[in-house]
Request: fold
Amino acid sequence: MQCGLLGEHLSHSFSPQIHAQLGTYPYRLYEVQPEGLGNFLNNTPFTGINVTIPYKKAVIPYCKQLTPTAALLGAVNTIIRQSDGSLLGHNTDYAGFRSMVEHSGLDVGMKKVLVLGSGGASATVVAVLKELNANPVVISRTGENNYSNLNKHADAAVIVNTTPVGMYPNNGLAPIDIDLFPTLEGILDLIYNPHRTALLMQAEKRNLVTENGLWMLVAQAKESAEYFTGSAIDDRIIQKIHTSLKKQTENIVLIGMPGCGKSTVGSLLANKLQRTFVDADTEIEKEAGMSIPEIFARGGEQSFRKIESTVLERLGKKSGLVIATGGGCVTIPENYPHLHQNGIMIYLNRSIDTLPTDGRPLSNKDNLEILYTVRKPLYEQFLDVSVANNGSIDDTVDHILLMLSKGDLT
Ligand code: NAP
Reply:
């Protein structure tokens, strides 16, 4: 048995990790250039493959048969080789998005739902929404309903983003400003990298329901695996894989006062989790080509903060890191979305009379208390969880590991 994923650029795919938890079949990535598509489909002895950008439509002529869902959507994301060697095309994105709506808890029935984008995923989303008795309106850059007349739809209850706007590596961009929609209940974003797009972060600020595309990705993979193996798989596996993938791909970001132990705790934590540890201060020195005291001496704190934000923007886009930040990163509000988009923020809380001061440009004994008074509320705005670090480093790391294993940090 041989399964895999067909696409043009696949280096960032999560599919191998997901399928490794769905079955024991080998699953490999097939990066194929457009001119090689026919040869690949005709001559590769796969049992079943998933299909991604840009081939979901292009593979249709090679399929002898389409399932009713694939025919309805005019797109194929799963191909099965039949016993006579011919290819059957199916689309599991339909089941994936349906499952995502259910998981979000949003009730879309009889409500206006704006679907941003008019590509392949949009067609799937619209078909599912119609089945759920919602009233979908597609917003397209070139359509009758477009980004210049969104005010016609200020009564929208839900927004689904099917555009790639805000997706890695173009993090931080949002296709719309949700202030236009006062009665909005929630946003579903098909993007899963980053975990929280700029659009989802707008919704978080208003305490709306949010869901990214990771659930859909896992749910559609589960249905593909059922096609590959010919056996039903319990739906509960979706939650299990979703949780483990989220845990593996989210960054763990340590924030806190200078000297509170972020670098020591971070490096030991990374070691125990077999993750890469990154110290933001070291990255800042690399970026600037000089030491931190030199940066302060030449351009002052403002210059340092600018370099720090550039570094945090770059690190925050990555996945699965343990990041120790500098104590003052919380003074710059734009650092919050950089770190929050893919990260769980742990505030390492250490009693200030035990904080060291040597070699730290902003914390000498006299102003440490003032610094703490100013920064404490900022740490509280950034944090997801606060962890005391007044005992041994091992105890603190074990405490964080326990929280991670119990799912308290997801
Ligand atoms: P697609 O066929 O290329 O369609 C994307 C649509 O977005 C385009 O048709 C376009 O619609 C709009 N768009 C593209 N660039 C834009 C821009 N710069 N500004 C505003 N709108 C823009 O791609 P797709 O296959 O539908 O996938 C779309 C997204 O969904 C991708 O991010 C993909 O990763 C994600 N996806 C996720 C899952 C999952 O399992 N989570 C499954 C499928 C897809 P208009 O020209 O009409 O504006």
Q: What stands out?
A: Residues 53, 93, 96, 117-122, 140-142, 162-165, 167, 175, 190-192, 213, 216-217, 220 surround NAP (CB under 6 Å). The chain has a mean pLDDT of 95. DSSP finds 14 helices and 16 strands in the chain.
